[in-house]
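User: For documentation purposes, I need each entry recorded in a consistent format: the amino acid sequence on its own, followed directly by the corresponding structure tokens. There are two entries in this batch. Please keep commentary to a minimum and don't merge the entries.

Assistant: Recorded as requested. Entry 1:
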Amino acid sequence: MTDKKSHQIEDVAECCRIEEKINKAEEEHAEDDGHDHDHTSKEKSTFQLFLPAIISFGLLLLAIGFDNYFTQSWFVGWVRIVWYVAAYIPVGLPVIKEAIQSIRKSDVFSEFLLMSIATIGAFAIGEYPEGVAVMLFYAIGEIFQSLAVQRAKRNIKSLLDQRPDEVTIIENNVAKTIKASTAKIGDIIQLKAGEKLGLDGELVSDKASFNTAALTGESKPDSKLKGETVLAGMINLNSVSQVKVTTAYTDSKLSKILEMVQEATSKKAPTELFIRKFAKIYTPIVVFLAIGICLVPMLFVENYVFNDWLYRALIFLVISCPCALVISIPLGYFGGIGAASKNGILFKGSNFLDVMASIQNVVMDKTGTMTEGVFKVQEVVFKSEFDQKEILQLVNAIESQSTHPVATAIHDFVGEIDSKISLKEVKEIAGHGLKASANGKELLVGNFKLMDKFSIKYDIDPSSIVYTLIAVAYDNKFVGYLTIADSIKEDAQRTIDKLKVLGIKTTMLSGDKNNVVQFVAQKLGITNAFGDLLPEDKVNKVKEIIAKNQTVAFVGDGVNDAPVVALSNVGIAMGGLGSDATIETADVVIQDDKPSKIPIAINIGKQTKKIVWQNITLAFTVKAIVLILGAGGLATMWEAVFADVGVALLAILNAVRIQRMKF
């Protein structure tokens, strides 16, 4: 399973490298081993794209008119040939150039070569209108494909333009504009109303309202108070605000999101890889079959006419062009990644779209995934022999060493940490809690498993209290406990209901005490729930499901979730509250921490896979029928054009549908 996180697909022969159009850095693809269907490294306007085809179409219409409807005495011989050549050049020359470049790169049997041979062959046997028409329709197909790619690219690259290049910092009470990349941790950024934040930071102003659409896909304003975290890409909505930089430019949450999007194209779905490999084998076979169709009948047909059989071979070549598959399939997957991005979900590769489509089990963490992860201390129950204020200060000090939401709840309840307190040998025990030495005495703060581990005797039944409990021991004596409550996310119930409709089994795994986990699971209607789990226990539970040959998506947010995220078929991380380790390990990131995005991600995977297989079925069915008709002399070049360009256009239009769907 670890290979799936680092695996890079290399040396795959490709007829079309659409991913080069979706990557932000396109400058260096001159050395690439694939082909650029835009015929340019920069996006052209729609008019510029269509101009060669318009010129060619105009000249072709006039030529057909002179041939058939308003004949001209001068439109004969070399004049007629030159006219058709002039109509051919605007659309044919770029394709011939691509074919030559492909041959130079040792990719001899490309779709460009097929189209060049077919159309030049049509000219050789005097079928000038058909030669021009085939290349014209092929060029129009390429234009529509380019427009579709540009749309997919814009959907994904909308994330890539979310961060400003410059920021305004306050230095010696003077506003100064600098490059965002040169801002240092600790700098104070001044944000005017409507400005985007360039780096992650902490709000210095008393309060501010932000549009978080760049990160979450939600345009609903998010209010922040002094001291709360704000992220790069958020837009300040109202008054001038100040933010203290807490993270370097390259380490910001948005930088990591952009990096994920950039890397997403390197991990391809098995279907996509198969089609690309298939195209490399399929295309030379088609060329040799076409040669056979042209020459072999010479040995068996009594009235063999070379031009007739050459025409059939050329039709066969046009029909056989695999561009409908090698264009529409990657485009379908990129469309899926783009649709997910618009919904605040990041897929790190098209292969994960395929896996999400076949998920049978969703296993989830509780805290921060199905619950808010915002705890509040409800009650403090300490034995009277201990000084409550002193113990709470010690608990506050040791919990400041942890990033768990419980630590924040205790800090909010107790207040500022007493600077006089000195803790030594602070150690976090995974799945248990914290241990330290305070005033020469052992301090333990965690769950009741921690008490058991250190043989601390207590006189209560933890299972009788339906709250998260934080047990405290000091100087080898049980002090008491704090009760902490977390609230269920507003869309958690909707998430479980939708997963049930999709026929997906749900399981909750948590390190929290079992009766709390069972209470939340019962309230939400989750099928299976297990509490009091260590990180290795979560791994074992997921292994049990995988051992039944069932696919698993694990959803989590904490550092402890990283191992089980890596083990599952698809690891899903909550990108807002989620730890960097979990986000880095995960295959899918939900940017706004909403569990309702889980069934949306599964639906996007299902729709993407459905569209891809629709395109494969359409292309193979139409091509197979017209190939048989063409080889038997029953199909003309016009049917061939439909089998190639027509099918490619239909497949492209079908592929871009997912970008318009609402999930």
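Entry 2:
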Amino acid sequence: MQEDSASLPLLPTLPKSLTGIDGLDEITEGGLPKGRPTLVCGSAGCGKTLMAIEFLVRGILDYNEPGVLMTFEETAAELSSNVASLGFDLPQMQANKMLRLDHVHVDRSEIEETGEYDLEGLFIRLGYAIDSIGAKRVVLDTVEALFSGFPNEAVLRSEIRRLFRWLKDKGVTTIITAERGEGTLTRQGLEEYVSDCVILLDNRVIDQITTRRLRIVKYRGSTHGTNEYPYLITEEGFSVLPITSLNLQHEVSNDIVSSGVAALDEMFGRGGFYRGSSVLITGTAGTAKTTLASAFAAEACRRGEKCLLFAFEESPRQLVRNMLSVGLDLQPFLDQGLLYIEASRPTLNGLERHLVTVHKLINKHQPQTVVIDPITNLISVGSLSEVRSMLTRLIDYLKVHGITALFTALTSPRNGQSEMTEEGVSSLVDTWINVRDLEGVGERNRGLSILKSRGMGHSNQVREFLVTDNGIQLLDVIIGPSGIVTGAGRLTQELQEQAQAIGRQQELDRKDRELERKRRVLEATIANLRTEFESVEEELRQINDEEATRREALHKGRQHIASLSIGRISTPSDDQP
């Protein structure tokens, strides 16, 4: 029997300092080690300096922790100018006594190395800067410039250890930036060993597309994310893309939303999709995936909900025009601000930029519904595994925020499966609808089926549907001698069934007429029999009446005769004495 987890003693955790950088605190499970140095290393252009500065700025703005920025390459004016476009006002922070910015110029030609040369002067200068504002955070950018004056490797290693020990003793949370070396994380190959936390930034170019990745190489005393995570440098600063929710503890809803097609809703046990769920529509080209997606978006707008539609193949005007041909007028929803269409080619940005664009637009418009048409176009800007990873994070992000999402994906006409679905994206969604061609003799028709729908029953039929001037119309299933029939076969079957129905109706009408004739004959026979019966009855009644009259007359005659006889007997004779 397992012991109750509530009775187990809580183990001490390593104190951490939140960075305030989007996504980084999630990966580090609470931030950087408090009061300890963290090494941020990487090649040129990967954003080491920007990440370090944002660590200071977020500490000042979000956590009221003063910071010191000591730079060995760029001057204070240059740094202030570089980050001003991100909205970071370093001079104002200096004026508020929350930031101390110090530029240290190190020129190797001016240094004469002696056996007693060390960084004592730097410690004094840095210590004064920390004490002057009560700094809690420190950034040293970059350490290579500082150590360029130490050609003696033994002295160099000793001073590196002294620097890291001094920072620990000072109790400040520090970021030290370093350039990546050949085969090592840093030029000297030592800093990563004495640092409590090491973060590696990588800027790579694959198929002419720039991709930035972040990895936590080590983190003493704490668990952390060990994978490579994409990150971006945007006009809003340094951002590690949100990772998936490992615990899968997001809230769920029992509310049902319509697909925009009434007949399709009837195929689901509860009459639609769960709010906050994810829906995937797959199919070959020309199977009305975009039309179904647009109908879903239009229905959301009719409910008064905001919808964000990402179109990777059509411009907003083209999409509005094309949907008018099937009876969907999206323009009023655009005018009301309920529908926003973001249209761009996938190759315009990398996968991470697309994901950040989705996040920004969701934060800006606060939609209840998101439609992406189609996700398979993203393969052109990344590998299958990268696209799957990006979509995993996106689906998880939408679920956490309770947003109902619909994705379309193009499938191969050869095997009927999509590269994306084969790679497991279909397993991430809650509902999977497949539209496909139903090819007959000399014609092509469209069919729709529900492959899965988590949490509710659904139809297992393959329904033929038409794209009409009034939208999508699902047709009833018709079964012929060889199975389900579609297209011309459906019309032929319907005509045959109509002819059979007419024949059956005519036969029923004939039988009704025959029955009516028989009824009339029977009624006439019954009337004749009734008349004959009445005649016999009348004759019998007359005989009975005559017999009764005769009997009555006979009875009266007898009474008369009897009365006469009595009269004679009772009257005395005249000649009697």
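Summary note for entry 2:
The first strand starts at residue 16 and ends at 17.
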